[in-house]
Amino acid sequence: MRTIRKAGRQEGKQARRRSTRRYCLPVFLLLFSAVCASGKPLIIGSKKFTESYVLAEIAKHALSDGGLPAEHRQGMGGTIILWEALRTGQIAVYPEYTGTIAEEILKSPAMVSPEAIRAELAKAGVGMTDELGFNNTYALVMRRDAAEKARISKISDLRDHPELRFGLTHEFLNRQDGWPPLAGRYRLAQRDLKGIDHGLGYEALRNRSIDVKDAYSTDAKIAENNLVALEDDLRFFPQYKAVFLHRLSLPAEAIGSLQRIAGSLDEARMIRLNAEAERTKDYARAAGSYFRERGETFASGGSETLASKLLRWTARHLQLAGISLLLAVIVGVPLGIMASKGGAIGHAILAVTSAVQTIPSLALLALLVPVPFFGISARTAIAALFLYGLLPIVRNTASGLQDIAQPIRESAIALGLTSGARLRQIYLPMASRTILAGIKTSAVINIGTATLAALIGAGGLGEPIISGLNLNDHATILQGAIPAAVLALLVQWSFDLLDRFVIPKGLRL
Amino acid sequence: MTNTPDAKPMIELLDVSKNFEAGTALHPTNLRFARGQTTVLIGPSGCGKSTILRLIIRLLEPDGGLIQFDGDRMSPKNIAEFRHRVGYVIQDGGLFPHLTARDNVVLMARHLGRTEVELITRLDELATLTRFPAEALDRYPGQLSGGQRQRVSLMRALALSPELLLLDEPFAALDPLVRAGLQKDLKEIFQRLQQTAILVTHDLAEAAFLGDHIVLLNEGRVIQQGLLGDLRDRPGSEFVTEFISAQRSLAFA
Ligand SMILES: Nc1ncnc2c1ncn2[C@@H]1O[C@H](COP(=O)(O)OP(=O)(O)OP(=O)(O)O)[C@@H](O)[C@H]1O
Ligand SMILES: [Mg+2]
């Protein structure tokens, strides 16, 4: 029965893959490989967890040592975003796991032979190194004391404990090899399921607000926190052998540099490197240990001072929020003017801008990343922020204009002012307070939301926040969160100041 | 400026009608407004007085008939140019709150490209004419009394020396003393400028004081028109008598 279901699933997946291939126009591929080849540093992506950061740092140094400058975009928002970025040539390399490739990327869980996987990936212009050495599969982990007390050592033991509270990462909750099929296979009946960030999940385990969470088997935190990984007695989880995925169009020496890492990282070493990275909060240093252990020299990139990092993050953050706000004003005010006239178009404008706000940010990013112009650049972050910033401006512009009293409108018309002059000289100044309030809301939202830019490697204050969440390191989180809060306050104040210049005096009596 | 019936009227309504979903605001109506005269539209609330002014300035499109201004048929095409030749004053002034009194008055003239010198001269004339204190010109509407606001509104309507002035209950919201002062000033202004005006009012005394010609309306129809004496002495219907005596009993009880 399982095989039948599986076959059906595969067909559906193949159909989906065909349809995605349609917009993967060769023209764009060409365009992007051309961009990649043009002397710019190679871009290496990583997912937002320690091991991925460390592997990406290792790849970066391996490439740099081979004379190919490389740049590491840290902690991008998950498999879909990284894969789309790689497929469209916006990043050159990222660390991935064979199980994820089969299940999530190729959607063919049965595909196990490296040859078959390579052949499939090649169709998207992507190559795969040999296995790096370790298997980082999923595991379910519990506090050691709790597991012992309840006599749980295998996943099938969970069947007798439906009262346990699960805190699972959002990715695991939705994966093809994640919770739903796992629960089906093991016939688990737990009801108390929460979606929780990976780093925060450890905290939740520690303070006993959850009992079970998903983890990666090489996660240093398992030992650190005195947790046990439950045995996968039904062999549900596929093998997650680490590899690098890379563009096939990379120069041969680059592929060679990556290939030299293959086979050199066993589980013990990877756990050690992960632990070092988490202890020192310095991924490059962990990568350095790897090279030193191999007896190679390691040119550290020179660590940046906190002040200069803060400056860089803040400047980027302001740039992202500022440009997107400017665009939202330029587009939002005219849309608001159109919306203020009501009718089908007006309602449509308000409905669409409201709907955009309800799209989760990760979903919006995942939608934008494969689009040629956007990719994993700051442009995507700006586009997303722009879309989120539209609604307050459009809605306030529309309602500010609609609130202008009928006698004022009629006086303006009866005077013989043209409709353009009425708008510029009468209606917009009169609505300025409401419009400005909308812009202010939008600015504050943008400052807050701009942290999501880090999910696609576009920098900003989200960088320390995401990296801190992953390390479960409050100090690092605060390095991003405090400046972001201060910025939001400053923006609020400067808008209050702006009120005095923009809102006509006659309206402030 | 005679008032002979064959003199060409400033403005003329020919079979003009207006319906709203709720009913007819104006049945097909013919009206002539003579040059240099003040015509008063009077009648009970909802009888269609404001509707007539709004049809003339084209805030409303007529459902039937046509309106001629100085012999030209008015249409949505020529309305922009026509609006510059008409001044319009409403009950609460309709002043723009974000502009000073001065800017409210000269807004349109400035828009039409008059020089600042011309604007200042004109503003001076208007302030004198309407007895508006020059030092209050730089205040915003929110900083003016109701009577002052109506004077600003009047200045704004007169700024381009309009051929026709439309006034929709301009004094209704003012206290009796202020109202009496404004009525007196308005009468002088009309005489000095030989102004053609249409004034909407509820108040028979105001109509008698300011109007040369009175048009009594009821339920969207002209009931009777002429001098106040004609209406009083030769009422065309029971309604005319009732309307006049109701007002008199209010005013002189
Ligand atoms: N925009 C509109 N929509 C619907 N009905 C309207 C509209 N404007 C006026 N009416 C109706 O048309 C009729 C005439 O209105 P109008 O404003 O001309 O009366 P009026 O004589 O000026 O009354 P008042 O002395 O109370 O100002 C009224 O019954 C009114 O309810
Ligand atoms: Mg009225």
Unique ligands: adenosine-5'-triphosphate, magnesium ion
Distance between the termini of chain B: 38 Å
Strand content of chain B is 15-25%
The mean pLDDT of chain B is 90
C-alpha-based Rg of chain A, rounded: 26 Å
Named at the architecture level, the CATH assignment of the largest domain in chain A is Orthogonal Bundle
Over the alpha carbons, how many angstroms does the gyration radius of chain B reach? Answer: 18 Å
What overall form of chain A do the CA principal axes indicate? elongated
Distance between the termini of chain A: 77 Å
CATH class identity of the largest domain in chain B: Alpha Beta
Beta percentage of chain A is 5-15%
Largest sheet of chain B: 6 strands, mixed
Helices and strands, with pairings:
The complex is a heterodimer of chains A (509) and B (253).
Chain A: H1 2-23, H2 26-37, E1 42-47, H3 50-65, E2 70-76, H4 79-87, E3 93-97, H5 98-105, H6 114-122, E4 126-128, E5 138-143, H7 144-149, E6 166-168, H8 170-174, H9 179-186, E7 193-195, H10 198-206, E8 212-216, H11 220-224, E9 227-229, E10 242-247, H12 252-261, H13 267-280, H14 283-293, H15 306-340, H16 343-358, H17 361-368, H18 378-402, H19 406-415, H20 419-449, H21 462-471, H22 474-502
Parallel strand pairs in A: 1-2, 6-7, 6-8
Antiparallel strand pairs in A: 3-10, 4-10, 5-8, 5-9
Chain B: E1 11-20, E2 23-33, E3 38-42, H1 49-56, E4 64-69, E5 72-73, H2 79-83, E6 86-89, H3 101-111, H4 116-129, H5 146-158, E7 164-168, H6 176-193, E8 196-201, H7 204-210, E9 213-218, E10 221-226, H8 228-233, H9 238-252
Parallel strand pairs in B: 3-8, 3-9, 6-7, 7-8
Antiparallel strand pairs in B: 1-2, 1-4, 4-5, 9-10
Helix pairs in contact in B: 3-5
Structure description:
The complex is a heterodimer of chains A (509) and B (253). With 509 residues, chain A is of the alpha/beta class. Chain A has helices at 2-23, 26-37, 50-65, 79-87, 98-105, 114-122, 144-149, 170-174, 179-186, 198-206, 220-224, 252-261, 267-280, 283-293, 306-340, 343-358, 361-368, 378-402, 406-415, 419-449, 462-471, 474-502, and strands at residues 42-47, 70-76, 93-97, 126-128, 138-143, 166-168, 193-195, 212-216, 227-229, 242-247. Chain A has 3 domains: 42-135 and 240-293, D-Maltodextrin-Binding Protein, domain 2; 138-229, D-Maltodextrin-Binding Protein, domain 2, CATH 3.40.190; 306-507, MetI-like fold (Orthogonal Bundle), CATH 1.10.3720.10. Helix content of chain A is 61%, strand content 9%. In chain A, the strands form 3 sheets. A 5-stranded mixed beta sheet of chain A has the order 7-6-8-5-9. Chain A has a 3-stranded antiparallel beta sheet with strand order 3-10-4, sandwiched between helices. In chain A, strands 1-2 form a two-stranded parallel sheet. In chain A, strand 1 (42-47), helix 3 (50-65) and strand 2 (70-76) form a beta-alpha-beta unit. Chain A is elongated. Chain B has 253 residues and is α/β, with parallel strands linked by helices. Chain B folds into 2 domains: 1-85 and 165-253, P-loop containing nucleotide triphosphate hydrolases (Rossmann fold), CATH 3.40.50.300; 99-162, no CATH class. A 6-stranded mixed beta sheet of chain B has the order 6-7-8-3-9-10, sandwiched between helices. Chain B has a 4-stranded antiparallel beta sheet with strand order 2-1-4-5, with helices on one face. The longest helix of chain B is centred in the C-terminal third of the chain and has 18 residues, at 176-193. The model of chain B has no long low-confidence stretch (mean pLDDT 90). The interface between A and B is medium-sized, with 22 and 27 residues. The structure holds adenosine-5'-triphosphate and magnesium ion (MG). Magnesium ion (MG) binds at residues 49-50, 168 of chain B.
